[in-house]
Every structure is written in C-alpha cells, then in structure tokens.
Amino acid sequence: PCPSVGPRGRLRAWPGARELAPRWGPARPLPRLLPRAARAAGGGGAGGAAAKAGGAADMTDNIPLQPVRQKKRMDSRPRAGCCEWLRCCGGGEPRPRTVWLGHPEKRDQRYPRNVINNQKYNFFTFLPGVLFNQFKYFFNLYFLLLACSQFVPEMRLGALYTYWVPLGFVLAVTVIREAVEEIRCYVRDKEVNSQVYSRLTARGTVKVKSSSIQVGDLIIVEKNQRVPADMIFLRTSEKNGSCFLRTDQLDGETDWKLRLPVACTQRLPTAADLLQIRSHVYAEEPSIDIHNFLGTFTREDSDPPISESLSIENTLWAGTVIASGTVVGVVLYTGRELRSVMNTSNPRSKIGLFDLEVNCLTKILFGALVVVSLHFAGRWYLQIIRFLLLFSNIIPISLRVNLDMGKIVYSWVIRRDSKIPGTVVRSSTIPEQLGRISYLLTDKTGEPLPGNEMVFKRLHLGTVAYGLDSMDEVQSHIFSVYTQQSQDPPAQKGPTLTTKVRRTMSSRVHEAVKAIALCHNVTPVYESNGVTDQAEAEKQYEDSCRVYQASSPDEVALVQWTESVGLTLVGRDQSSMQLRTPGDQILNFTILQIFPFTYESKRMGIIVRDESTGEITFYMKGADVVMAGIVQYNDWLEEECGNMAREGLRVLVVAKKSLAEEQYQDFEARYVQAKLSVHDRSLKVATVIESLEMEMELLCLTGVEDQLQADVRPTLETLRNAGIKVWMLTGDKLETATCTAKNAHLVTRNQDIHIFRLVTNRGEAHLELNAFRRKHDCALVISGDSLEVCLKFYEYEFMELACQCPAVVCCRCAPTQKAQIVRLLQERTGKLTCAVGRRRPAAPLAPASRGTGAEGKQASLAADFSITQFKHLGRLLMVHGRNSYKRSAALSQFVIHRSLCISTMQAVFSSVFYFASVPLYQGFLIIGYSTIYTMFPVFSLVLDKDVKSEVAMLYPELYKDLLKGRPLSYKTFLIWVLISIYQGSTIMYGALLLFESEFVHIVAISFTSLILTELLMVALTIQTWHWLMTVAELLSLACYVASLVFLHEFIDVYFIATLSFLWKVSVITLVSCLPLYVLKYLRRRFSPPSYSKLTS
Fold this sequence. Notes:
Elements lengths: L16 H4 L15 H8 L2 H8 L1 H4 L26 H4 L8 E4 L25 H10 L2 H12 L11 H33 L2 E6 L2 E6 L8 E4 L8 E7 L6 E4 L1 H4 L5 E3 L3 H4 L12 E5 L11 E5 L6 E5 L4 E2 L4 E2 L4 E7 L5 H4 L10 H25 L3 H10 L7 H19 L7 E2 L11 E6 L7 E11 L4 E2 L4 H17 L17 H14 L4 E4 L7 H7 L5 E4 L3 H12 L3 E5 L3 E5 L5 E10 L7 E8 L5 E7 L1 H4 L9 H10 L3 E10 L1 H16 L4 H10 L6 E12 L3 H10 L3 E5 L4 H10 L8 E4 L6 H12 L4 E6 H10 L1 H9 L3 E5 L3 H15 L2 E5 L6 E5 L8 H7 L2 E3 L4 H41 L11 H7 L4 H5 L9 H6 L2 H6 L7 H25 L4 H23 L5 H17 L15 H28 L3 H6 L1
Parallel strand pairs: 15-27, 15-31, 27-30, 28-29, 29-30
Antiparallel strand pairs: 1-8, 2-3, 2-4, 4-13, 5-11, 5-13, 6-7, 6-12, 8-9, 9-10, 14-33, 16-17, 16-26, 18-19, 20-21, 21-22, 22-23, 23-24, 24-25, 25-26, 31-32, 32-33
Helix pairs in contact: 2-3, 6-8, 8-14, 12-13, 12-30, 14-30, 15-16, 16-18, 21-22, 23-30, 26-27, 27-28, 30-35, 30-36, 35-36, 35-38, 36-37, 36-38
Membrane topology: Multi-pass membrane protein
GO biological process, one term: retrograde vesicle-mediated transport, Golgi to endoplasmic reticulum
Cofactor: Mg(2+)
C-alpha cells in the first residue's frame, strides 16, 4: 500500500515510512526554529541527544555554541503548498509512486515532461527579462529616465537623438549578445532532447525522442548511449547478468559503476515478455540523493506474488552512459524530477564584481551631479532638473558601451590564443572576473587533475621489490612456475596441510601475482574488431578484442599488469573466473563469495575454489590501516607502505588464507543466516566475515600511480604563488583523494595533513573542531558526512578555520555540497571563487558562480569557460584574467575622466555666465566627442598590457596584486576625478582668457584643446604600444580635422586657420597635459610599480 502525504509534511502509517520519510525524520512536522533554551534541553531534534552527550565538553570548549541553523533546501523541488494549478501540470509536493511496467497511462499522479532546459528565458520572457536585468541597476535606469525626460518640452536640452541613440545602442548590443547565447543554449538543449531511443510496446519496438519519454515506458538503451531518464534496470544483453555505467557526467567520478538488473525480469526469455507480465515498481518520492534509492519490484501474476527490494544497484540515473551491453529499463522520474536536474541550480544572468563596483562609482557620480545642480540652480524646481540634464555627462553612457565591447574583445582574444587551444567562452559578461580569483575549487575525480590513467609501478614482497624496470624478472618467475607445473605429475586433489618450508622466490612471486589476478571485480568484455565477430572472439579469448571493465581504474591497472607478466584474466561471470597461463593453459576458478569494497571496511575479499585441485582460498586486498591488523605479524609492512605513499603511489596490501572444506561450509552457513536476519543485518554479516579475517598470510604490496595531466604540478604551484587557495572537492574515497592531493603537490611535502575524523553529532563535531583549531599551517581533509554535520551546527566556525588552511580536500562530497561550499565561501569571505568541474573533453569553469551542483556535460553547458586541459587554467588566469581586469579598470576610469572633463568645462562656463542653464556644446559636437573623435583611441586601451604574457606566467606574484582591487578603487577613482577637474578647468579658463571677441571662438579653442588633451592622455596611459593604437590616434585626429569643414554652425572655420588659434590651443593643451607627464615620470623614477621592475 502507498503512503499518503498528510498535512505539514507528515507521512501517514505505512511499513516503510521510516525509510522513505523526508530527511528531517519520519512522521514529524516540518522543522521550526526553537528557542535556544528548548534546544539546550534536547528540543533541537536530532541534535538534542548529542547536545546532552557533549554537555561536559561544552563547559570547557573555546568555540561558542551557536543556535542550530536549519539549512535552506538546496534542491529545486516545488515547495509544498504552492499554487494548486501547479499540481495539474506535474508540480506540487513530490510523492512516492507506483509505476506499472509498459503502462504509462496507469498513473496515480501527473508527471513533468522529460525535457532538459538550460535556458534563462523563453520566447515570451526574453525581452522583458533582458530589459529588467539591464534596468534593475542604477546605471542604466538613470539613462532611461534621462532620455524619457526629453519628451517634456520644458526639460529638453538639444535634439532627442543625442539621448536616445546612445541608450538604444547600449540596449541593442546587450539584447543581441543575450539572444546569441540563448540561441546557442537552445540548440544544445534541443540536441539532447531530440536524441532517439527505442521503446517497447505491445506493437513491438518503436522509436521515440527523449522529450517524449513518459513515466512507465520501457526504454532500450544501447552501449555508449546516454540514459534519457531515471530508470530501474530490468534486463541486460550481457551474459554475466550485469552492466557497467559511466557516471562522470552525473557525479564527476570516472570509476565505472556496476549495476544489476531485477532478478525476476532478467530471467524472462525475451525483453518482449516484460509486457506480458503484470508487475509494478513502487518508488520513493524524487530526491536529490544520487547515491541512495529505496523501492520495491512486485510481480502480481505469479503464485505466490514475487517481491524484490530495489536499491541503488538497480538504478540507471539520467545523464549516465551505458558502458557494456544493451539494457532495458522502466522510467521512474522525468523532467525536473530527475536526479541530475534536482542537483543543478537554475541558470541565471551573472553580473561580475567589476560591474557592481562600476555601478557603485556611478552612484557617487550621481551624488556629485545632484550637488552641483543644486548649487547652480538655487531653489527653482525646473532649473534643478535642467541642470541635472545639463550635467548628465558626469555619468557617461558610453561607459556601458565601452565595457561591453571590451568584454567581447577579451572573449575573442581568449578563444584565439594558440597556447590554450579549444577554449570556449560561454559567458562573455565576466571575463575580467578571471583576474580576481581568490579560491579555486576543483574536482579530483572530475579529472581536472588526474588524467585517469593508472600505471602499475611497484610490487613489494618484503625482501625484494620489483619496479617498472624489473618486471621482466617477474615474468620469468611466472613462466618458470607454469613450465615446471606442466612437467610435474598432477597434484593430488583436495587441500593438503604440509609443514612450512621456505618457498622459492618464484613460488612467492607466483602466489602474489595469482592473488592480484583473482581478487578484483574486473570483467573482460570481447568486442568485434572488424576481422573477428564478438562470439568468435569470446570463444577464442582473442587478446585484440578484449577490454576490461570495472568500477575502479585501480583494479583495471592491476589486471592489465598481471596480463603483462603472463597471467591473463580471459573470462568471468557471476560464479566463475578463467585465467590463462603463459603456456596457454586455462585455469578455472569457481567464485564462492565476494565481499565488495566499502568506504567503511576499506578492503575487498573473494573466496574461490580452484577447479583443478579443489583448493579453497580466501584472498583479500585493502588499505594498510585495516590490513595491518588482519595479516600475520611482520616487521616491514608499515615502513614500506609509508615509503610507497610518499612516492605518491596508491598502496594496497594483498593477503590470502587457505580454507578447508569443512571450515568453508561452516562459514557459509553462518554467513547465509546473518544475511537473512532482519535486525542489525550489516553488523552480523561483518562479524561473520571478520571471523575469517585473522592471521592471513601477507603476500605483497602493490603500488599504482594515478598519472596526472601534463603540467598539473607547476600549474598548482603557479596558482599558489599567485595567492589563490585551491580546494579539492571530490566524490572519491578519502585515501584516494589524499593520495591525489599529495601526488599533485596540492599539499606540499613540508605541510602536515589534518584528517578530520568522522563525526555524527554536535558534540563530536565540537571536540574535533577544537582539535583542528590547535593545528597551524595544516592542510585539511574532511569527508562529506562530517562536513554536513559541521555546517549544520558550526557553519561560521568551520568556514573560519577552513579559510585559514593553505589547502582543503573534501572527499565523498555530493554535488549539492560542492555548490553549498562555493556559496558559503563567497558569503563568508566576500572573495571571488572559480569552480572547475569536468566533461569530456573540456573542463568547465564558473568564476563568481555559486556552484552549479552538477558536473560533467550538464555543468559544461552551464559553465562560463571551458578548457581542454588543467594546465591551461594558469594562462587563462595569469595572462587573460589579469589583462582583462587591468584593461577594464583603465578603460572605465578613462571614460569617466573623459565625461568629467567636459562636465567640468560646462560647470565653469555656467558659473561665469551667471549660472545660466545653457549647454556649452550642442548637437553633433556633444555626440562626436564621445564617438568618432575619441572613441577609437580610448577603446584601444583594451589592447594595452603592462608586461608580456611570458613575464606574467613567470611571475605569478603580479596576479596577487590584483586581489586587493587596486586597479579600480576609490583612491584611483579620486585621482582621475582630480585630473579631470584640473584639465577641464584649465581648458575652459584658458579659452575664456585667450578668446578675443566672439563666443564662437571660445567653442573652437576649448573643444579643439579638449580633443587634443584626450588624445594625449590616452598616449600617457598606454604602457605597451600596439600598431592599432597608433592608427586609432591618427584616425581620430584626421576625423576631427576633416569634420571642421561641416561644423561651421558651431565653429568659425576662418578663425581656426589663423596662427592665433594654433598658438592658443597649443598653450592650453600644454598646460593641461605637461604637469601630468612630469608627475608620471617622477613616479616611475622614484616609486615604480612592481611590473615596471620586470619590464626594465
């Protein structure tokens, strides 16, 4: 029976309610904030008992206990109690469901369409949405009001086009850019939604698009095809009755996952029989948890009805890729209820920190504008508004245009850089953010760091070790053992107990290699290569057609190594395994039991029976920390494990134990009984297995290296020297993550590592945080479970301590936890973060992102930048990020300077002429000043650079200077304001002093001096000349001279041809610019900036 959802989130009576209840507990109301006293008394729910348990510690703790903060829901589910009409379109509170196989019409609720949508807008919301995003910021709203005011005749100052044309141009550029990005996103989404799959129906197999798949459909997914929806695995074409999944597009982990079909449906003769049986799946409500699932499969038409429990092993989540065989599944969740979608935040428009800073400066300028207008206008209302309009140039509308066009240039330069080929810029609004990154969050298993290529490096037998250069000795030992066996008479059947004798080196090596070849979860798969078909290849064990599939690349590396030394895994199913010797003899082994690797046990074991001798052997491999207490006493294990770990190798300890038939039968009886128990099943099973794990014979140590991508270590070193702290967030095991951090030199050799022990409640978290607080200059390694507890009770304290660490490694992290960490880092530090995930073949980056929560292809589509290799990140930040930020800072301040100059001149002019609200320059002069006369030289600053790219890469300390935000600060802004006031006043007073008789001469002298001053100031600002800069200067000057012929309405053409005009303009320009050139020379001489020391 299905549970029903009662009011306030209660689950009514149902046997499985405890397991399927929401995460705040079974049959309890939604969480409320309790008073502090109530919480201290244990009313804080799950934390109450913990608070009591840790009561004694609380009195001496030096971390103040904070009130329990309920976390915001990090998923994208609709909230309970939303509009009723949402329920009719598949919205409302998610509920458990019963899904009938092949009958989507039999449904107890409406489900969302299976559509992937990464767009920010749709057809109807695009224009309103883009305009809202533009005008919600003060800068653009100010210009809109300014332009609208010109429709009032009393307020009009000049022609309408002088206000509406610049504003229209700004909006057109923004709308076109957003439209292009939306169209690209739409095309990518359409490609995913239009992928064709096969659906099983009563009429046979029919083709269906991904977007048309419904809950209850039976979908066939081929090898290397993306799973289109969250499904339950029913059947596979693989003979071993299982399949492998590639989940790196979902959780970032590159290890393949083993999935098992429902046993009842796998036994059916054909896939079409799925439609002939009466069966259904009962599943929990949609959840963001990609690592757990609870459900039940029931077949009603059998006698008695068959029920099977379903777990994560029976699921195929959307976004994963089938790595072996062809599978059939029944669809459980679609659309926004997919695990991958619920772990992804909604797409949004990103506004960079630089744009927010410019917006803030604009408000300061507006304040200055109001003050000046009030000072000039007195008390008259209309006069105040006219002066506001007259001095509106104080806030330059061209600033928005120049910055947006500059970002397009930066994006184009990044894409065209031959040293970082394949780089894609998806968000052209925030390239200068790359110049101010303080925290880089990277995903280990997302493969920005490792290249996912495992190499077997070391076999250690205690008295002798074999490295890559001595593997031929291992091969010769194996060959000699099997050659000797083939010449000796057959061994006696059954296990024999012989006295211990010193074995030869060959037999020791053989035992170690055989253990490695048998103790694993690897399956050999044969594929047709064009010459041999698949069935023939499998029959003949063709080497050229064989590929190994496993859930861990470590295991594949081990099996590939045993093949290289002569012992080859050629066949495997759920109950047997076949090895081939150097003499092409096939050894058959029966798999009696498998104990898979778990995060808690840190080891895996297998019991096999040798078919030729009948010997039963228990093989086990695992981490040294657990295996040290299992194997017989020895004096070399701990030391050699430490030596190999320091070399960056993943170390496994391999051991074995021979079992008598009676001993195994006794174990099997106890093991089966423990697995059938209802209470404490996992504890009882572990106890039975541990009864075997005693006094095992230590065979060898193996060392496998996770090959890094090219230049990962120098890149991380560069980032560290640039002042960027690197955090590694991974779904991988703690040991693997720690090993990768050491191997990549994320943690330097002289740094200690503090491994945050597993905590489950508030008291334990309290004590562990206190222990961590006492460590200094120490890298932190913490698991996702402990992280969740710390963030629940001590969010502020934990983030404060973690931010002081030189490096942080978070392992076993869920995608939503990664997003939460990015968000908390930004909120707590106010610094910019850059999140690096992975897809094939590019790594997406999301600067200033609050985390997408999903990785892989989904993340790449939502990413701002995609790079093909991790080493490209160094150049992207040190060169392009640094240049983009410095150029945008110089460009914005120069545009403000250009506008403040002309506004200062207007203020001087109005004050001299009795505060009259008369514009100094009208019509084309005011538009031409910001466009054809000065636009090209000013915009050419986007090509400027202070140092060569090679120097920027060689001295990453230059990047550290930018983290303080000095290129664009209140100090630099004030300096440019003072320069503008000085130059504007000098030009205007000079023109007023030197003009002779007519007012039109003032305009000619002042405007020409203004243009020349701007051109000279651009030349003063430029640090590295580019040929386009020279062209822009000369072209602008030529345009002004040529246009004088057509400006007789504003300028006396005959006057400008006189010598008097030339010397007056020269004197005024010299007085306005020469002091600044002198000051620049003196500053460079006595207080040079850091980059000038390198360029000299």
